[in-house]
Design goal:
With about 450 residues, this protein is α/β, with parallel strands linked by helices. It is about 30% helix and about 20% strand. The chain folds into two domains: about 260 residues, 3-Layer(bba) Sandwich (FAD/NAD(P)-binding domain), CATH 3.50.50.60; about 160 residues, 3-Layer(bba) Sandwich (FAD/NAD(P)-binding domain). The two termini are about 20 Å apart.
């Protein structure tokens, strides 16, 4: 299959890594970004309306585990930089490597469809629509921008303000209010902590228990401890559980429900401050919401608390608004892919950053971009359809056996393991490509 020109959707933190990989490999491409700048979700007040960044946002993954391999973050940055520093880092990345002119800004991909062996893509820019055709389509539109609300909704009606975590911008919105934060993920913890600093009262409602892990352990960022792919997974988990038990202890000590799973059997909830705020009584833990009342929230234990604001930290839907959902969709946030990149049926269709690592996405997207570039240049060949399906079946079987059943756990990977396995697959695919070239030569 020949790939003379490809289309890349999105110039967020994953997309710009692909832009560099394609440019370095000499692949002809167009990159369309709906906003007027790079950085995607990390741009506070992003013009495209897709960013979930808020004023007090800091990264939960450490600087050294989030940076691109070929562009380290400034050593002047703290271990866990503010979102403005991360956005500046992405700007510096595209400018250092001369990538900005390779991106078409304020250009929204409205529709993409496969016609024969080519992709027809409709793009709107400055109010005018145009269509172009490509040999391959690369999707880097992110998966933390389309809010997932409780479905079905809780019974009853609430007269106060309700917002999703995606639309939260500043703790000033909560000043003097009685706030119920629903959820136990990273966003819920962060917003509950911010609320507790300014709100009249803050309640944290949990549907199920989680293991809260701090950002630091033994003076080092947590994600730099017990991560090597050379250490077997079961050994890593036992080490992590021992450290967590010694440093943090049982969740029930903080008034939180006991988790119904072992550590690392769900995506980790990382917070350096939530346990402190719970310990000081600044946040009141509550069980799951049972019903809404006009000026209050009823919880599963029968208690009722007056409330002015409910912040729903209930996750996101994985959606591709430019595809006909009958063609490609992620029902239940589940889209099986080969190594979380290649669509098994449409070999000209690839996804970047569509995974949830125990760590940051950026270095993984960087590796994916380099892998895709090799494929497009013919230096890497995919396995046959049966081998790809066998790999996906094995990967998904292991993932669903390990993690708590949830829409949140449909594309989980371990950071170091993924990079190791991807490198091994790249080497296998390079050998396949060599055999294919030799087999096509005249005898």
């Amino acid at each position: 299959m020949s790939f003379e020109r490809v289309c890349l959707i999105g110039a967020g933190s994953s997309g710009i890594a692909v832009v560099k990989a394609l440019a370095d490999a000499g692949v002809a491409f167009d990159c369309f970004e709906a906003s007027d700048r790079v950085g995607g979700n990390w741009v506070f007040g992003n013009k495209n309306g897709m960013s979930a960044a808020y004023e007090g946002l800091y990264i939960n993954t450490s600087r050294d585990r989030m940076q691109y391999a070929d562009h380290p973050m400034p050593r002047s940055y703290p271990d866990f930089p503010h979102h403005t520093q991360i956005a500046a880092y992405f700007d510096d990345y595209v400018d250092r490597f001369g990538l900005r002119d390779k991106i078409t800004f304020e250009a929204k991909v409205e529709h993409a469809a496969l016609e024969g062996d080519r992709w027809r893509v409709r793009v709107t820019k400055n109010g005018a629509a145009s269509e172009r055709t490509y040999d391959a389509l690369l999707v880097a539109n992110g998966h933390h921008w389309d809010p997932l609300w409780p479905d079905p909704p809780y019974r009853g009606a609430f007269d106060g303000r309700q917002l999703h975590a995606h639309d939260y911008r500043s703790k000033d919105e909560l000043r003097g209010k009685r706030v119920v934060v629903v959820g136990m993920g990273n966003s819920a913890m962060d917003i509950a902590v911010e609320s507790s600093e300014v709100a009249r009262r803050t309640f944290l409602s949990a549907r199920r228990g989680v293991h809260v892990v701090p950002k630091y352990m033994f003076g080092k960022p947590l994600d730099q401890i017990v991560t090597s792919a050379r250490v077997p997974w079961r050994v890593r988990r036992r080490m992590a559980e021992t450290i967590h038990r010694l440093v943090v202890g049982d969740m029930e000590r903080y008034g939180l429900p006991k988790p119904d799973h072992r550590l690392l059997e769900a995506h980790p909830t990382i917070s350096g401050r939530i346990l402190d705020r719970l310990g000081h009584g600044a946040i009141t833990p509550k069980p799951n919401v049972a019903a809404l009342r006009p000026k209050a929230v009823e919880f599963a234990d029968g208690t009722v608390e007056e409330a002015d604001v409910i912040v729903w930290c209930t996750g996101y839907k994985v959606t591709f608004p430019f595809f006909d959902p009958r063609f490609v969709s992620a029902e239940g946030n589940d889209l099986p892919l080969f190594f979380r990149v290649f669509h098994p049926k449409h070999r000209g269709l690839m996804f970047v950053g569509l995974l949830q690592p125990l760590g940051a996405i950026m270095p993984l997207a960087e590796a994916q971009g380099k892998w895709i570039a090799k494929y497009l240049r013919g230096a890497y060949a995919l396995p046959d359809a049966r081998e790809m399906q066998r790999f996906m079946d094995d990967e998904r079987r292991a993932m669903f056996a390990r993690y708590v059943p949830s829409k949140r756990h449909t594309m989980q990977v371990d950071f170091d393991d993924y990079l190791r396995d991807l490198d091994q697959e790249l080497r296998r695919g390079e050998k396949r490509a060599i055999r294919t070239r030799k087999g096509s030569r005249p005898q």
